[in-house]
Amino acid sequence: VSLMASFGAGVSEEYVFRNALMPIMDYRYGQRKGLIYSSLLFGGAHLTNLFMSEKPDFVGTFTQVAVASVAGYLLGNDVQRRGYNIGPAVAAHMWYDFVLMLGSFLVNPQNNFLGVSVSFKM
Fold first, then answer.
1. For residues 32 and 73, what is the distance between their CA atoms, to the nearest angstrom?
2. Residue 16 vs residues 4, 27, 58, 102, 116: alpha-carbon distances, Å
C-alpha cells in the first residue's frame, strides 16, 4: 500500500509541478525564477494538510512546506538539467515518500497495518 501510494504521489505531483507548471513558469519568467516559483507553489500545496486533520499540526505542516519547497527546487533543477525529462524526479519523489511512510509505520505501531514495530533504546 505504501509503495503504491508513494508511486501515485510521485507520478502525479511531478507531472503537475515539474512537467506542466514549471515549463510554463520557465517560459514566462525564465528558468531561475520559474524554478523558484514552481518550487514555492509545490511546497505551498502541502498546506492543504492542515485541513486533513481534526487537530492540525501547524509546526509539522510548515516544516513539511519548507522541506517540500527545497525538495521541489532540487527536483526541478534536476529536471531542467535533463532537458525536462521528469523520469528520475518521479523515481526520487516516489522513493522518498516510500521511505518516509515505511519509517512512520515502523516507528508508530498503532497506525501500522503491517503489525510490526521498531523500538529504540538509549
1. 10
2. 18, 16, 25, 25, 35
Contacts 24+ apart (CB under 8 A), 33-41: 35/73, 35/76, 35/77, 35/80, 36/73, 38/72, 38/76, 39/69, 39/70, 39/72, 39/73, 39/76, 40/69, 40/72, 41/17
pTM reported for the whole predicted model: 0.83
Torsion sign over Cα 23, 27, 31, 35? negative
Write out pLDDT tens, residues 68-117.
999 999 999 999 999 999 999 999 999 999 998 888 777 776 766 666 66
Cβ proximity of 38 and 17 under 8 Å: yes
Task: Report the amino acid identity of residue 48.
Answer: T
Q: Going along the chain, which residue ranges are E strands?
A: none
CB atoms within 10 A of CB 88: 13
The three cell numbers of residue 119 are 523500538
